[in-house]
Amino acid sequence: MLINIILIILFFALISVLIINKESLSILRFISMISTGIVVVLSSVLLLFFDSNSNDFQNLVTYNFDSDFLNLSFSFGLDGISIFFFFLTSLLIFLCVLYVLNENNLKQYLVLLISIELILLIIFSVLDLMLFYIFFEAILIPMFIIIGVYGSRERKVRAVYLFFFYTLCGSLLLLVGVLYIYSKIGSFNLEYLMCYQFTKTEELLLWFAFFLSFASKIPMFPFHIWLPEAHVEAPTIGSVLLAGVLLKLGVYGFIRFSLTLFPYASLFYSPFIYFLSLISIIYASLTALRQTDLKRIIAYSSIAHMNLVTLGIFAFNNIGLEGSIIQSLSHGFVAGGMFFLIGILYSRYHSRFLYYYGGLAHTMPVYSIFFLLLTIANIALPGTSSFTGEFLLLSGIYKVNTITGIIAATSVILSGAYSLWLCNRVLFSNIKEHYTLKFIDLSLKEFFIMFPLVVFIFFIGLYPSIFLSYIHLSINSLLTLFL
What is the DSSP string of 88-102? Predict the structure, then answer.
């Protein structure tokens, strides 16, 4: 019943925040912190009491609506794949709520953040294909408002329309595919659909319909244009949620639906995925080296890392798939943390231009420690979560296709190049006194936002077996479709 409780808490928190007057700041802060904090605790309880010896969906909740006019039934549940995305969402939303507590538009931000959390948790737990599609598209609405209304610059309108049309248009074929599946089978239930065998032609067409939607979310080349623009124009919490959770929707969609429902087509199209992913990795990494906007560097870094994840998914082996999930989780913490740090700088100096910053190690030592730790995590230094994820997924793809594995491994070198270059320019070059006259290190609130992210990065990196034990049986069950 915990999933039920979590969704009810968020629903009533959303209603409460909508009703309460925007001048009642203390009440708004209390409700938002308590509700999202309880969701983090309950998500942790779900994680702690998850049965890692079972490959079935757990904490199942089923809703039936039977009447003369309506006959609907849909279920919610979590397995070893979705439970980590569920926890990641709840933690990042809580940290975003903490970040905006002193903002002028507090009520509006809280409404949007709680709406996003409710939608995302439904996406990661729902076992109904149509309901998944509805909320998969519904997430565009609050994100559209966050970027288009509360973005930082004039280009935000262009950015938000790119984001909206790339992701919405990419999903039109997904809707066609979902409706075809219902017309063919008469059910949207995922567990029922997993037992159905599509013809090879149906699989090839349906897989491609699903692919366009998920590839736009990751994003893969050439569907990536919207992401750097959206990141640059979005406020800090918008960038954190884009990188930390929304990019994972494409990964989750590939694993949960494309591989599960269309195994033949997934194998058939795997060379196509390798080709697009390798182009995306190399292009994004080289482009990141040329950027002078702090957000754009991390945005292109995200494209490269998420396409590595895609390669691991289509390795079709335990190592690659488990590495992909760990790397997705790691990227949520690392990229989310980097965007928080960039947002902290922007709130002080109102610029993201790289050449305005330098020597922060002398003037903001605590900030610099977090920046350095996240940088070494971004380049997958041993002991960090990114190392565990990248090592596993690269090993997995190398077993399947040696050349692809070698080319993909160049991303490690390129990632080190732009990450260390960025870190050196911001922390260790000369102090730019003309641009940054006042130096204010992290506040207590900012410290408590960054600290849990760093803890999880190193906890996953040092004790990966704890997390892999959750995933293993669910991945094994998935891979039986490819035997």
Answer: HHHHHHHHHHHHTTT
- Asked if 263 and 482 touch (Cβ cutoff 8 Å), the reply is yes
The residues with which 66 forms a beta bridge, in sequence order, are: 71
Structure tokens at 214: 């998920």
Q: Residue 10's closest CA among 79, 103, 108, 94?
A: 94
Confidence class of residue 460 from pLDDT cuts 50, 70 and 90?
A: very high
Distance CA 287, CA 264 (A): 35
Contact 327, 389 (CB under 8 A): yes
CA-wise closest residue to 114 among 93, 100, 133: 93
Please tell me the number of Cα atoms within 13 Å of 32 on its side-chain side.
31
Residues 432 and 359 sit within 8 Å (Cβ to Cβ): yes
The reported pLDDT for the residue numbered 385 is 92
Comparing CA positions, the residue from 71, 240, 209 lying closest to residue 133 is: 209
Nearest Cα neighbor of 470 from 168, 51, 135, 102 is 51
pTM equals 0.92
Per-residue pLDDT reduced to its tens digit, 416-435: 888 998 888 888 877 776 66
Helices 318-349 and 294-313, axial angle in degrees (round to 10) = 170
Which tokens hold the place of 408?
């993909």
Say how far apart CA 101 and CA 110 lie, in whole Å.
9
Of 52, 90, 65, 63, the C-alpha closest to 1 is 63
d(CA 259, CA 267) in angstroms, rounded, equals: 9
